[in-house]
Design a protein that fits this description.
alpha/beta; Aminopeptidase; Aminopeptidase i, Domain 2; seven-stranded antiparallel β-sheet; 11 helices; 21 strands; zinc; hydrolase
């Protein structure tokens, strides 16, 4: 504030030499996390591995609760909760940072494999809101699990190692693109056009030679038969590692930064939480991109069930009244990315209320569309509380919203968590090219977000 004016500040201008060095060190850790967490399953795996290194134990192993105890609880390999027990009783509420691990991608269909015109291909179904034309003519990696007829669980990760093959969705050549050129962006590439090329080497025999050769390779390497695709979850995602962007290496391009950049910052913050009065909870959830549905989505009872278990462990007593009190007195940061101002496309955002790359963590009071439909819309009292924490801890922050009125819109997990009668506001990292195969973030924003989440946990009353 200068003379009563609200002024957005560039993070770099608020940092000393030591902190600037920390920004780049953190950037290297962030890129490593992004490379290890291409999907929600691999994200959960990476989070638990790191948590264990910092003294977190499973809920079953935790024993009696006491201040400083570090606990994790996993759900079906797709979401996980980390908690650092605070000094106050759980009934006084918890402080939660919640983010999602799923990102737009191409899911392999249940009966995917076919052949045509000298190639073997797989049918896909796109997952989440993506611009389909961005996903063609792009090297893709294949991740996921296959449950075989023998009941064996096989983990698949092909396309990101240097000697791995990649996969590919073809596009029409511009020389013959007359009909495609007059279609809208939405119609130029359809969902059923997004077929994954997986081979072109024929097997011996007359029928299904290209398809059978792929099956021969899969059977030899993994013991997979065609029917095993029926009990598989395979995802095609952009191949390649997270990379620095710019001559100054100040930014990062990577797949899935919505919302794994907030997952990374939440993880990094909770691993270092100390002396927290309220119990600190980091919740890494699945299925946000398709409406928070399913047993691993935010609408699941998993979150409540874990809190119930913690309440019981606290003094071997539980009742619905205690859980209700816990939830009512809890505070939540819905950790999701914000749309950043793009100097090439400024017309979609309202500049006065848009996030700017390099100006710190973004507080988004509401998302939604069509007059805030589907929004959480945080109350003024809670926004004032978060402002105070950020100011007192020298957090560089800004406000943001998701585009101009009537331009479009979207949502987060915020409204679902607010249904539990908790205070909730969206607070996260600004992103350029959201939902594209590669998204762009700024390293000082990531650094400031880690500080913000840790301050929320340690200073939150």
């Amino acid at each position: 504030m200068d003379d009563g004016l609200y002024i957005k500040r560039n993070v770099w201008e608020q940092l000393g030499a030591d902190e600037k060095a920390e920004v780049f060190t953190l950037g290297e850790k962030f890129k490593s996390f992004m490379d290890a967490a291409k999907t929600e399953r691999f994200g959960v795996k990476a989070i638990i591995e790191e948590a264990k290194k910092h003294g977190f134990v499973s809920l079953e192993e935790a024993g009696a609760l006491k201040a400083g105890r570090k606990i994790y609880c996993e759900n079906r390999g797709k979401n996980v909760i980390l908690a650092v027990i605070g000094e106050e009783s759980l009934e006084e509420g918890v402080n939660v940072v919640g983010c999602h691990l799923d990102s737009p991608r191409l899911d392999i269909k249940q009966n995917p494999l076919y052949e045509g015109d000298g190639m073997a291909l797989m049918k896909t179904h796109y997952y989440g809101l993506l611009r389909k034309y961005q996903w063609v003519a792009l090297p893709l990696a294949l991740y996921g699990v296959v449950i075989t007829g023998r009941g064996e669980k096989l983990e698949i990760a092909i396309g990101d190692e240097e000697d791995d093959p990649v996969f590919y969705v073809s596009d029409i050549l511009p020389h013959l693109g007359k009909d495609q050129n007059i279609k809208s962006l939405e119609q130029a590439v359809t969902g059923e056009d997004m077929n994954l090329i997986v081979g072109s080497l024929p097997a011996d025999g007359k029928d299904n030679r290209f398809k059978r050769q792929v099956l021969n390779i899969l059977n030899k390497k993994y013991g997979i038969c065609e029917e095993d695709f029926l009990s598989a979850e395979l995802q095609a995602v952009p191949a390649g590692k997270a990379r620095d962007v710019g001559f100054d290496r100040s930014m990062v391009a990577a797949y899935g930064q919505d919302d794994k950049v907030c997952a990374f910052t939440a993880l990094e913050a909770i691993l270092n939480v100390n002396n927290n009065r309220k119990t600190a909870v980091a919740f890494f959830v699945d299925k946000e991109e398709i409406g928070n549905v399913g047993a691993t989505g935010m609408h699941s009872r998993f979150f409540e069930n874990v809190l119930t278990e913690l309440l019981f462990k606290e003094n071997e007593k539980y009742c619905d009244v205690r859980l209700g009190r816990l939830l009512t007195k809890s505070n939540v940061l819905s950790a999701d990315v914000a749309a950043a101002m793009d100097p090439t496309h400024p017309e979609i955002l309202e500049r006065q209320n848009a996030a700017v790359i390099g100006h710190g963590i973004s507080i988004v009071k509401y998302t939604g569309a069509n007059g805030k439909e589907g929004a959480n819309d945080a109350n003024a009292e809670y926004l004032g509380y978060i402002r105070r924490i950020f100011h007192e801890n020298h957090i560089v922050w800004q406000t943001a919203e998701l585009g101009k009125c009537d331009q479009g819109g979207g949502g987060t997990i915020a409204y679902v968590m607010a249904n539990h009668n908790m205070n909730v506001v969206d607070v996260g990292v600004p992103v350029l090219s959201m939902h594209a195969p590669y998204e762009l973030t700024n390293k000082p924003d990531i650094y400031m977000t880690v500080k913000a989440y840790r301050s929320f946990w340690e200073e939150g009353a």
